[in-house]
Design a protein that fits this description.
single chain; 366 residues; alpha/beta; seven-stranded parallel β-sheet; 36% helix
Length: 366
């Protein structure tokens, strides 16, 4: 099957959405499909000569077709227009759209369209756009990243009850490269991800104060966010590694024994806006599981779809700092519990949350 994956992600970039689309295109390709990824050209000039596939840790088994996305009002519309213009000169069996406006624009080519959504519609216009796509004869199905988000769409669009709607959480690759940590090395605690508001940097800093003899590593973040956090953190046991391409993360995971996901009640996305706390399926959770790390995570209802306290992680109220201290101390002191949580999380990952498994399931069930 020939698939056009329609995305507005900039390739390459520091955004999590770009990781998702690259991993999914690679996974679709592994299922024996011919895949073209439609993406925007990156504005991050430092990465212009990067090997895109190596940057994301994927095989170069699919094509990347990039279009400039103008940075002014109406730029997204222009980007979609030129992307769709390119689509007209190729023959595809399926459009897989990560943007509902893109899906609507592609309908005129009369090819089946699958939409994947990671949040609820942002406004009335978006609600109307999705409704038009859902009611199209070429609508092939909807993919949501959590059951909570599926429930929201079924509420907004009752007509979806008679159509294909699949929950597919985010995933991770089975690590092909790992560096084993020496058994006698001191315990280290890590965080991997952006440092937008609501990602819990304050909890990490407070834990570093309470565990002053333990090293904390923060991997990721835009430079402005790193500087913001550094301005309130002058601790010698906190190391800021900066942004690291996904394909190089294995070099950093090898340092950690315990990893943190200290989400707040409101979780911002790129640009500091929005709130994904009700519907999210964070990439970092699945990477933590894949790299066999003991997880301490905020007790956010939507994450119960994947995580279970004292089964594959420890969950803590994001406002209860004493609970976080107790959880971390327990994992430091109780080696058996730490290994039990790691093993359980890794088995859950292998059974349910690899990119290849996700791609196979979507193409089989939709």
């Amino acid at each position: 099957m020939k698939i056009a994956y329609l995305s507005t992600s900039a390739i390459p970039s520091t955004a999590a959405n770009s990781i998702h689309v690259m991993k999914m295109c690679a996974a679709f390709s592994k299922q024996g499909n011919s895949v073209d990824l439609y993406a925007s050209k990156s504005a991050q000039i430092n990465y212009c000569k990067t090997n895109f596939y190596k940057y994301y840790g994927v095989d170069n088994s699919f094509n990347i077709i990039k279009t400039i996305k103008p940075f002014f009002r109406g730029g997204s519309t222009i980007y979609r227009f030129f992307s769709n213009f390119k689509l007209m000169f190729k023959r595809y069996d399926l459009f897989y759209a990560r943007n509902y406006h893109h899906a609507k624009s592609a309908l005129f080519l009369k090819i089946p369209v699958i939409i994947e959504v990671h949040d609820r519609p942002s406004d009335k216009r978006a609600i109307k756009t999705i409704k038009k796509v859902v009611n199209s004869k070429k609508f092939a199905g909807l993919v949501t990243i959590s059951q909570a988000l599926k429930d929201e769409y079924l509420y907004l669009y009752p007509e979806l009850k008679n159509k294909k709607v699949i929950v597919a959480h985010d995933c991770a690759d089975i690590p092909q490269k790992t560096i084993k940590k020496k058994d006698n090395d001191a315990i280290a605690i890590g965080y991997v991800g952006h440092l937008y508001e609501g990602r819990g940097a304050e909890i990490i800093i407070e834990m570093a104060k309470r565990f002053s003899n333990t090293m904390f590593y923060i991997v990721g973040g835009l430079e402005k966010d790193i500087q913001r956090v550094k301005s309130i953190c002058r601790l010698p046991n906190v190391v800021f590694e900066g942004f690291v391409p996904n394909g190089e993360l294995y070099r950093y995971y090898c340092k950690f024994d315990i990893v943190l996901a200290p989400y707040q009640k409101k979780v911002s996305v790129a640009g500091g806006g929005g709130d994904t706390s009700k519907y999210m399926s964070p990439l970092k959770i699945f990477e933590y599981m894949a790299y066999k790390k003991a997880i301490v995570c905020s007790d956010i209802p939507v994450l119960h779809e994947v995580l279970a306290d004292r089964n594959n992680c420890l969950l803590c109220d994001c406002s209860d700092l004493d609970a976080w201290e107790l959880a971390i101390n327990l994992l430091i002191e109780d080696h058996n519990l730490r290994n039990q949580l790691i093993d359980s999380a890794y088995q859950d990952f292998l059974k349910n949350y690899t990119w290849d498994m996700r791609a196979k399931r979507l193409l089989t069930d939709l």
